[in-house]
Amino acid sequence: MIVQMRICVPAELTTLVADLCQQQAGTAEVALHTGASILPKGDVVLVHVARESVEELMEKLRALNVESVGSIALTAPDLVLSDRAERAEEAAPGEGADTVIWDEVSRQTGEESRLSWTLLSFLVLATLLAAIGIVTDSTIAIVGAMAVGPEFGPLAALAVAVVRRNWRLGGRAAVALGVGFPAAMLITALITWLALPLGLFPRDVLDRASAAEFIYHPGPFSLIVAVLAGAAGMLSVISGRSAALIGVFISVTTVPAAGFVAVALVLGEFSKAAGSALQLLVNLGGIVAAAVAVLYFYRLVTKRLPDGDVLRLRRQALRARR
Q1: What dihedral angle (degrees, nearest 10) is formed by the CA atoms of 135, 138, 139, 143?
Q2: How far apart are CA 245 and CA 229, in angstroms?
Q3: What is the pLDDT of residue 304?
Q4: What's the pLDDT score for residue 178?
Q5: In angstroms, rounded to a whole number, what is the distance separating the alpha carbons of residues 16 and 11?
Q6: Contact 279/218 with Cβ under 8 angstroms?
Q7: Within the chain, which residues score under 50 in pLDDT?
Q8: Are 276 and 222 in contact, with CB atoms under 8 Å apart?
Q9: What pLDDT score does 111 carry?
């Protein structure tokens, strides 16, 4: 797994950055384009490096304050044919699939945590689909609602915010969840209330909805499933295996629980509404807790750049700027 890094730096830091890239274990290629950057003015260094070495090199570049005086961009080439690249991957410690690039995880979860019309629309549609599955006793519709629900993005962002102490990211994710779910439930309740006079379903529909009984009966397995799903979801984000997220979506009952709360409140089934609300909270809490645990584990096992090396690099950067 080779990653291409495009590093834009002022001319006074070019030699230092190029040397760091060449000395980094796992580096396959380094190319220098002098004066290639117009805004900001400076040079461009292109590096092909094994994924498992990216985070260490990023820490070194952050010590030089490159992200403030220039920029760092990461891309993953679809195909790299190079014996040097193969040797670089062998020389790099660890496995690329097990590597956390923290800035990449923060960016990915940050993009999915914003309260946007797209996220709100998906959440409303998923909750409505869940409500239809509940009143029609359709397991297929309920599972479809699970797959459509976009709630894992903000939940993953909350976990990243806790581990990295990025409270701005956590605040955005909390707003997305705190506004998104109530809005989706309110719209679902309104449509349910309008559908009752039309005779689309009877008032005692919840007594017959055998397919939805698991939604308002939270138990130990509700928490266990949420924890397993949260761990699997965060692992899929870290490893870039997005296909695994589908399994995460259809294994937890967050959106169906929200839909059930809306329908039950309109029909006056307050005890069932309370049970499904508890199911929703258990799922949300379990997912976030498991995701936090996974990230803390990776933080513990990931090799960090020693403080002495960070200070040494900062002093070198200061000398280079003089």
Answers
A1: -80
A2: 9
A3: 76
A4: 94
A5: 10
A6: yes
A7: none
A8: no
A9: 78
Q: Cβ(49)–Cβ(28) under 8 Å?
A: yes
In the 8-state DSSP scheme, what is residue 203? Answer: T
Task: Record the tokens describing residue 235, joined without a space.
Answer: 């692992």
pLDDT digits (tens, 9 = 90+) for 132-179: 999 888 888 888 888 888 898 899 999 999 998 888 999 999 999 999
* Residue corresponding to tokens 């946007």: 116
CB atoms within 10 A of CB 270: 10
Cα maximum dimension of the chain:
79
* pLDDT the model gives residue 183: 96
Q: What's CA 139's distance to the chain center, in Å?
A: 28
Using CA atoms, how far residue 234 sits from 109, 138, 155, 185, in Å, is 10, 30, 10, 26
DSSP 8-state code for residue 210: G
> What are the structure tokens assigned to 146, written together?
């699970």
Q: What is the 3-state secondary structure (H, E, C) of 65-131?
A: CHHHHCEEEEECCCCCCCHHHHHHHHHCCCCHHHCCCHHHHHHHHHHHCCCCHHHHHHHHHHHHHHH
Which one-letter DSSP state was computed for residue 199? T
On whether the CB atoms of residues 127 and 134 are closer than 8 A, the answer is no
Q: How far apart are the first and last CA of the chain?
A: 38
Q: What pLDDT, on a 0 to 100 scale, did the predictor assign at position 117?
A: 92
Distance CA 96, CA 248 (A): 23
Rounded Cα distance between 149 and 135, Å, is 19
Rounded to 5 degrees, φ, ψ at 33 are: -115, 95
Separation between Cα atoms, residue 123 and residue 149, nearest integer Å: 6
Edge-to-edge strands, sheet with 27-37? 27-37, 42-50, 2-9, 71-75
